[in-house]
């Protein structure tokens, strides 16, 4: 079994055996001029750190760059990415003075969620209003940045696993959006002992009950699980 990840002229190749890897590389080299850089250590802003017991995917360098860009390199850390019982609304104040900067920072945080599932919900919330962000939402963005400052070394740990069992979890609130009364659902997927996929998203339709909001969340994670099942077959 082998998987090939291609981005423009960069390739990451993973295989089930060294022999298959060497054969794949030789086949690719016979068709295209390329250089084998060895085990991946940095790809699209993600560092790959190996230890005897686990592998860490980290965007620490990228997080530092975001903090520096907005002048928060020395900010006071926050213990959580959102305040307790915080609900963002489109009707909380005047528009921000520089919506382009807001969108740039929110977009940068979206990329950071590639290895940081702990900020998925917070980033999803601030991104709901990128078309016309209110001024108070800058505080929510800065709260996420302060949390990142205090958790700059966090990343995605991958461990050797004795099982390939796919396990999923999902949850949803009911009518959590104060403007639309739509619900927000989230899920995470584990392959063996490793977290491999997660999502936080506002549901596209209204739910008449909490049970309806929950089963819409279940439908989302089942769709993701089926995709992984087909990928792994």
TrEMBL record:
Name all Reverse transcriptase Ty1/copia-type domain ranges: 6-83
Q: Cross-referenced Pfam families, in alphabetical order?
A: RVT_2
Top-level taxon of the source organism: Eukaryota
For this protein, the record's InterPro entries field holds: DNA/RNA_pol_sf, RVT_2
List the PANTHER family hit by this protein, alphabetically: GAG-POL-RELATED RETROTRANSPOSON, RNA-DIRECTED DNA POLYMERASE, PROTEIN KINASE RLK-PELLE-DLSV FAMILY
Q: What is this protein called?
A: Uncharacterized mitochondrial protein AtMg00810-like
């Amino acid at each position: 079994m082998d998987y090939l990840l291609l981005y423009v002229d960069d390739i990451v190749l993973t295989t089930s055996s060294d022999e298959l890897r060497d054969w794949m590389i030789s086949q690719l080299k016979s068709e295209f001029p390329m250089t084998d850089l060895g085990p991946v250590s940095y790809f699209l802003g993600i560092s790959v750190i190996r230890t005897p017991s686990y592998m860490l995917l980290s965007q620490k360098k990228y997080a530092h760059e975001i903090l520096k860009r907005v002048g928060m390199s020395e900010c006071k850390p926050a213990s959580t990415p959102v305040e307790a019982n915080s609900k963002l609304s489109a009707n909380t104040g005047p528009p921000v003075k520089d919506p382009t900067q807001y969108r740039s920072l929110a977009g940068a945080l979206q990329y950071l969620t590639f290895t940081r599932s702990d900020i998925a919900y917070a980033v999803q919330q601030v991104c709901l209003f990128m078309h016309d962000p209110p001024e108070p939402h800058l505080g929510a963005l800065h709260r996420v940045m302060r949390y990142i400052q205090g958790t700059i070394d966090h990343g995605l740990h991958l461990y050797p696993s004795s099982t390939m069992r796919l396990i999923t979890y999902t949850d949803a609130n009911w009518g959590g959006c104060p403007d639309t009364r739509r619900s927000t659902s989230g899920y995470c997927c584990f392959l063996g002992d490793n977290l491999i996929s997660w999502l936080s998203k506002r549901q596209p339709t209204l739910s008449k009950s909490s049970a309806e909001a929950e089963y819409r969340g279940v439908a989302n994670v089942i769709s993701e699980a089926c995709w992984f099942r087909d990928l792994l077959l």
